[in-house]
Every structure is written in structure tokens, then in C-alpha cells.
Amino acid sequence: MPRNSQPPRKGLRALLLIVALAIFATALIFGTHSVVQAECELCVTFNGMTTCRRGSGADAAEARRAAQKAACAVMASGMNESIACDNTPATNVQCSTGD
User: Fold this and answer.
1) What is the per-residue pLDDT across 7-39, written as a single tens digit (0 to 9) for each?
2) Are 64 and 86 contacting, i.e. CB atoms less than 8 angstroms apart?
């Protein structure tokens, strides 16, 4: 090897990038998993349709809101209907906590 020649660094850069991505993915998975403490499944009847969805969150109230939003996203069209659907009482609510 000539004196002024440097070894290839592409392999080292690729390895460092893979390690950094693995660390980021691990932190993301464990970080989001620890936030989910409750899960709820509920049904909403709106505009003659009934839809059931699941939601998760830090507590049961947040999980219920997430499930209700998911159910209403399928049935409501526009802002007014979305708000009305979000305010519709849910049925068949089943929640579990990670305790």
C-alpha cells in the first residue's frame, strides 16, 4: 500500500449507520411500549352504522379516546360529523390495563 493511501472507509460508515439505526429502532420500540398502559375496544353507532375499534394509551381514558377516534374515522365525514361522532356514547366498552 502506498504511503499516502488511506484504507477504504465505506464499510466502516455502513457498519456505523447500521448500528445507529439498530439503537434508534430499539429505543423507539421500548419507548413506545412503556407508554401503553391500557387498551380498550369499543363500538360506536353513528349515522346508522356501527363500527368497533381498539385503542391504546397511557390510561383507560386515553385508550377509549383513541378507540373512539378510530371508529369515528370510518363513519364520519367532515369536521362537524367527526365532532358529533366523537361525542356519541360508545357501547360494548372493554378496557384492560397493563397492571
Assistant:
1) 667 788 888 899 999 998 988 877 766 566 899
2) no
Grid cell, residue 98, equals: 397493563
Only one residue has cell 372493554, namely 94
Hey, what's the torsion of the CAs at 69, 64, 54, 79, to 10 degrees?
A: -10
Q: Position 71: which residue type?
A: A
Alpha-carbon distance of 10 to 48, in angstroms, equals 60
Q: Round to whole Å and give the CA distance between 89 and 58.
A: 21
Q: How far apart are CA 89 and CA 7, in angstroms?
A: 67
Closest CA to 51 of 72, 77, 66, 69: 72
pTM, two decimal places: 0.64
Identify the H or E element spanning 58: none
